[in-house]
Design a protein that fits this description.
- By secondary structure, this protein is of the alpha/beta class.
- About 45% of the residues lie in helices and about 20% in strands.
- The strands form two sheets. It has a six-stranded mixed β-sheet, sandwiched between helices.
- The termini are far apart.
Length: about 290
C-alpha cells in the first residue's frame, strides 16, 4: 500500500497559495453597496478604514455609494434591488434601520451604530460603537486611580448598558452608584441624590435622557460639586467634561472590512459574532482638570 506523502514546508506553502488564490477569486471584484446615514466626518473615517482594509490586500471592490441625506430611501432600495450586490455596508443607525426593514437576503454589515441589537436578522451582523465596559473602567482607573465610586444615570432603554457596567465595576473593585430615570427632565433630582457620594460621573449613550439642556446641567453640576464628568466624545470634552472616550472610527471601518471578508469568503452573517470597538481614544480638558 502506498504511503501518503509527508507535508513539507513546500507543500504547506503551496496549499496556502491555493487557498489564498481561491479567496482572491471570491473577494476581488465583489460588488458592495455602501449606505451613509449622513455626511458627518466619523462615517467618512470609518469608510476610509473599510477601503484601506481591502486595498492592503490588493483587492478591488466594485462600490456603489448612497447617502440618506441626499437620496430618498425608496430610490436607494430600488437601486440596490437592481444591482444585487454581494454585500451591503451601512454607516450609522438610519442607514442600518432602512436595510433592516427592506433587505432580507443580501448579507449586511452594519457599522457606526450604538444599539445594534435592534437590527438583528439572519442576514445581518455588525460592529457597534459601544465601548466595552471593562475597557472604560480600565481607562478610568488608569487616568483617575483614586476613583472608587462611579455615578451613572440611565433609562429603561439602556438597562443592558447599566448591567454591563455594574458587572465591570464589581470586577474592578469599584462601586457603581446609579439612578434610573425616564426622561432628561428628571436628571436634576437624580443627580442631586448621588452627586455628594461619587468620585466621578460616567455618561452613557442614551438619547432618552441626554439632550443638550440635560447635558449642560450635568456639566455645570460637575464643576460646582467638583466631580469629573466622563463624556462620550471630544464634543463633550470641549463642553466641560474632564475627559471623554471615543472610538477609533477608522478602525471600526477596518473591523467591518474583516467581517465583510468572512462573508465574501462564504460565511453566513448569522454565524459571525458582532464586534465591539477594540481601539479607544480619549480627549482631556485641561481647564476642567485645573478647576476640579
Amino acid at each position: 500500500m502506498r504511503k501518503p506523502l509527508p507535508i513539507t514546508k513546500f507543500t504547506a506553502i503551496a496549499l496556502f497559495l491555493i487557498s489564498f488564490s481561491q479567496w482572491c477569486f471570491a473577494a476581488d471584484g465583489a460588488a458592495v453597496s455602501v449606505i451613509f446615514s449622513s455626511d458627518i466626518a466619523p462615517y467618512q473615517q470609518a469608510w476610509h478604514g473599510f477601503k484601506e482594509f481591502f486595498e492592503q490586500r490588493d483587492t478591488t471592490l466594485k462600490v456603489y455609494q448612497y447617502n440618506l441625506k441626499h437620496q430618498e430611501p425608496e430610490a436607494i432600495y430600488s437601486q440596490i434591488k437592481k444591482q444585487k450586490p454581494n454585500i451591503i455596508l451601512t454607516l450609522g443607525s438610519n442607514a442600518s434601520r432602512l436595510v433592516r426593514q427592506r433587505i432580507t437576503h443580501t448579507p449586511v454589515v452594519c457599522s457606526m451604530v450604538l444599539n445594534p441589537e435592534e437590527l438583528a436578522g439572519s442576514n445581518i451582523t455588525w460592529v457597534s460603537l459601544s465601548i466595552p465596559a471593562i475597557m472604560q473602567l480600565e481607562e478610568i482607573k488608569r487616568l483617575l486611580p483614586q476613583v472608587k465610586k462611579i455615578g451613572m444615570i440611565y433609562s429603561p432603554s439602556t438597562l443592558n448598558i447599566y448591567t454591563e457596567i455594574l458587572q465591570a465595576c464589581k470586577d474592578s473593585d469599584c462601586q457603581l452608584i446609579a439612578r434610573k430615570i425616564s426622561t432628561g427632565e428628571e436628571i436634576s433630582n437624580a443627580l442631586n441624590d448621588i452627586s455628594r457620594e461619587i468620585d466621578c460621573f460616567l455618561m452613557i449613550p442614551d438619547t432618552e435622557i441626554y439632550f443638550p439642556k440635560a447635558v449642560e446641567y450635568l456639566l455645570i453640576e460637575g464643576l460646582n460639586e467638583k466631580f469629573p464628568v466622563i463624556g462620550l466624545s471630544s464634543y463633550y470634552t470641549r463642553a466641560g467634561a474632564l475627559f471623554s472616550f471615543e472610538c477609533d472610527y477608522r478602525d471600526i471601518g477596518a473591523q467591518a472590512g474583516e467581517i465583510a471578508l468572512k462573508i465574501l469568503d462564504g460565511q453566513n452573517p448569522s454565524d459571525i459574532l458582532p464586534a465591539k470597538p477594540r481601539r479607544v481614544r480619549f480627549s482631556l480638558n485641561l481647564l476642567t482638570a485645573k478647576h476640579i
